[in-house]
Structures are given as C-alpha cells and as structure tokens.
Amino acid sequence: MNMYNLPDRQGHFGPYGGVFVAETLISALDELREQYDYYRNDAEFQAELANELKHYVGRPSPIYHAKRWSAHLGGAQILLKREDLNHTGAHKVNNTVGQALLARRMGKNRVIAETGAGQHGVATATVAARYGMQCVVYMGAEDVRRQATNVYRMKLLGAEVIPVESGSRTLKDALNEAMRDWVTQVENTFYIIGTVAGPHPYPMMVRDFQIVIGNEAKIQMQETYGRQPDVLIACVGGGSNAIGLFYPYIDEENVRMIGVEAAGKGLDTNKHAATLSKGKPGVLHGNRTYLIQDENGQIIETHSISAGLDYPGVGPEHAWLKDIHRAEYVGITDDEALEAFHALCRFEGIMPALESSHALAYAAKFAPTLAKDQLILVNLSGRGDKDMATVAQMSGITL
Amino acid sequence: MNRITQTFAVLQSNHKKALIPFITAGDPNPSLTVELMHSLVKAGSDIIELGVPFSDPMADGPTIQRSSERALKHHVGLHNVLNMVSEFRKENMQTPVVLMGYANPVEAMGYEYFAAQAEKAGVDGVLTVDYPPEECEDWVRCLEKHGLDAIFLLSPTSKQSRIAQVAKLAKGYIYYVSLKGVTGASNLDLENVASKLAELRAVVSIPIGVGFGIRDAEMASAVAKLADAVVVGSRIIEEIERSSQNELLNNVTHLVASMREAIDEQRN
Question: Are residues A280 and B185, on separate chains, in Cβ contact within 8 Å?
C-alpha cells in the first residue's frame, strides 16, 4: 500500500513547493500542469517514453557490486546504480527525454533550458537534436568560461548557448534568464527544467521522469540479491537523482535514505552549498524550500568543487523529507569528494562525476560502521570525464 | 479612506489619470532615495512604487535587475527601505508609497513583523511579485490587519477565473502588465491593452494601472487614455543609470514632468 502521496493538487510537499511566480507565468504553468496531468496517465505516451529510455538512453542501467572497494573499506557492501552509463553520461537525460516528448505533444517546437556545469544543457541539446527541435540554453557567463568543453558540445548538437551576465553569473542567474525567456515566448516554447525544483508541476514532473532509477533498482535488487538495500545514498544539489532513487522506497521504512550535499570548504565556512544543513526556508525560483540566504533574505553565492551541486536552493520534496525525518542529509567537503573520486578510479576502474563522488565519499565513511552483509546502494549519477580538468587542476597538474 | 483610495478619488473628480513612477530603493545610492522620492512628487507623480532590492528578480528585465544590484552593493535590505519611507513621511503625508518586490525578503523578516513596521513607516500598499493569490491568503490578511493594500498583477494571459480570483483579494489598484515578458521590454500593443482592460473592468471595481513597456511621454499619454494609472519603471531607471550624481535629480524630474504633461493633455 502506498502511503506517501505528495505533492497535493497545488504542488505542496507539506509547507514546501507550491507556485510562487509572477502572474505572467501562471497561464503557462496552468497549461503545463493540465497537459502533464493528461499525459502522465496516457498509456501511449508512457509506452513511447519507455521505448526511448530503452533504445536511445540505453536503460536499464545496471547495478554493479564494487567488491574491491568494499573489501578495502572493510564494512558493508557498496553497490552502484550505474546512471553514468546512460547516453550522455548522467541521469539528466531521463528527464530531458520525458520533457521533450511532452513538449512535442504540446506542439512546442522550441525548448529552452538553464545549465550550471552544462550537463543538463547537453542532455537538453541532445534530445532537441533527436526530436528536431530548436534549442536555447542559458548558462552563467562564469560557467561558460569554466565549462568550455560542454559549451562546445552543446553547439555541436545544434543548440544556441546564451551566456548570462547578470547577478553572480552562475546557475541561479541562468535559471532567472530562462524564466524570462519563457514568459516572453510562451506560445512556442517549452522550458525544460533540469532538477526537482521550480514552480509546480516541475518538482513532481522531473521526479516522475527520474523514478525510473529507483523502480529499476527495486527489481534488480530483488533479482540479484533477493532483497532490498539497507541504505540508499545519493548526492543532492537540486536533488533529481536522489529523489529518482529514493521515491520508490519512501514507504519502505527499513530502508535508510541519505542525501549528500556539498560541504565545499567545510560546513563551518561560508563556502559550501549545503542548503538543507545550513539554509533556512524561503521562496526562490517559484517554490518554497530551504535556501542559502543572508539575514535580509538575499540569496548568497554558494561554493562546491562540483558545479552540479553548486546551487543555493534544493528541491521542495527533499525539504519535506528532511523535516519529517524520512531522509537524512549530510555534507561532504571538496577534499573528501576528490578522495572518493580517486578511490573509485583506482579500485573499480570507474571514473565518477564529482557530484556523484560526494555520495561515494559518504558511502566510504559510512560503510565501515556497518556489518559486511549490509548493502549500501549508491546512485552513481554521472561519469567523471567532464571533470578531468578540475581534478587535474586540484592536483596541481595542467593538461 | 486610505491614501491610495483617496488619491484616486481626487484624481477622478478632477478627471485626471495617475502617474506612478517606480524606482529601486538604494539605487544608485541609499542617501539619494528619499530626495529622489520628493523630486518624483514635485514632477507630478501621484503614487510612488518603491522597489525592494532582491538578488534574484526573476520577473524583471535587465534594467531593473541592474538597479537592484546597485542597491545591493550598498547592502540595502528591507529594514533600510522602511527607514527610507519613514524619512520621506517626515515631509510628505499625502503621496501614497507602494513597496514592490519579491517574497523572500519579506519571509526573512517575517510577515507579521514586516506588516507592523511597514504600517508604522507609512507604507500604503505592497506588491509582492511572486506571491500569487493562491499562495498568499495569510499574507493578505496580515496586510489588511495593518491597513496596507495588497496590490496584484494581472497580465494579458490571465484567464477569466483568474481575474475574478485576483479581483476578490486586490486592494488599492490592479497593476496590469501590458505585455508578455519582463519589465523594460518595448513591444506594447495598445489595441490589445484596450480590449483586455475592457475585460478586466467587467470584473474589477478598483482602479487599473498599466505598466511594462511605457518608454516615453507619447506612450504614457496613449496609455492614460485607456487606464486609470500609468506606471513607468525601467525608463526612469535608465535615466538614473545614465545621469551623473549631480544631474540625476534634475534629469529624472524633467523626464517625469514631461510624462505628467503628456498624460494631462490627453483629456483635451
């Protein structure tokens, strides 16, 4: 029996979520909500999505037992849900395929997206090419400079990348700019948000497109191990890969769920992105959630070695899962994440994304405290090729 | 009768339309804001919309975002803005002041505390861009309790049911966003404005102001023929942006006075 049944009709997860946008966006969100309500229950749409996920994305992604690393750590067995093996190398594409198919059904031939590190931008540009849609990606000017390879990748895929010069010139400013674009050209444009944040229905819709991760895991765990994991661990920036894994397990109370935020230079410094650990509830980007903000309610710049976790908000469903103590949220520093990155490379021949390295680092801390027959399932949300320059730089090497 | 209702009543009896300029508190410099407000009044403004700076002004265009950024460089927070209104009230008890901004600074201060302080400072109305009617029942009740008008936006895409919902909650005046887009855009279509205003008037009994995209005296005059009030924001911010500190008050006064004149001429 499924007990957990959120959000409500207005998109609330307890006090979080909702629709906090200017009147100019209301009708666009109404239209999206109505259309999505229809298609999420439409067998033909779901069949098309499943087919795309299988043949284009390459699902299901396997669960891999990191035996050598587990043995080295000397505690619980660490299993990896290999979202890094998806087409484009991360979980992001699960969602962009879903939203692009919806955009097509809604007759919108232009898709826009915001991106930080560029992963969601690449995933959006990819599906736009696949379905023959016009694609515009907003990216903070600072991120454009830091992530030149992904910018070029998006351009190769036919997308137009617009550097955003306002504010802190990072992800949150790209999001502001994408919203402005959407308000202005709402008739022909679909805004593909990359994480489980933003105004309703986005947090719910993006979650729905990501729960394929947890749904597969449930089946695979039963098939291979005859039981479900004891602990789930996933990194949380906005929180889409984490909710994708957690959601199907919410009602299974003996499965612990741990979200790992970026503690940057440390939770006691002002250089982190640990929204749930250090933030306060407020309103930003269309939803009520925890935010990193100053005493005047201004949003503060965050820091993480991993651009994908470098965001001052977090999905409203995570805020709720924290408040009701269904999920725990912890922090991992830049240095700890980097150590886990190297460990997985050396022990398992898998190069994880720096985002996912945060989840791995916490697994490495946690596993030794558990018995050897306990199972930890870590969402390996993306591959680390994109991060080689950052890792090299951190090690004092110029490529 | 509060100051906003009073102001519209007087204007109406004189067959005049309201001119509502917008400036961001603290832009370009917190020490200039109160003086700038007095200049706006001298130039013929009827109501002042005072922007509360926010780090992420999602519904605004680049011009107003830049003004917010300039104010934030001086760390202008909501309590500073309230102090500015108190200061303004020392010399002006007639001109209504409406605070316009985003939800988060208000939430950080706390609704109840904010509303009490705003009342004390002499604020007349509050427009919180990202509090749509369905999310702000408590907020509106709180404003009401302190005699503050809840100002709401309506847009070209607002449906009938939406207009009715907003009409029920809105006090003071409705701010009709004249185009699809963000503040500072320049593609205002008068025919569309006219037909949508007719639709609004069937439901809304309070005055309707029109803003977004009013760039010059001519446009102000054309809009004044249709609406009860003309709201001018980005154009004034641009004037502030391009003026040196010495000429700023003069330039803004001149610009607003030219719009005042054009609006009044439309009666004839």
Answer: no
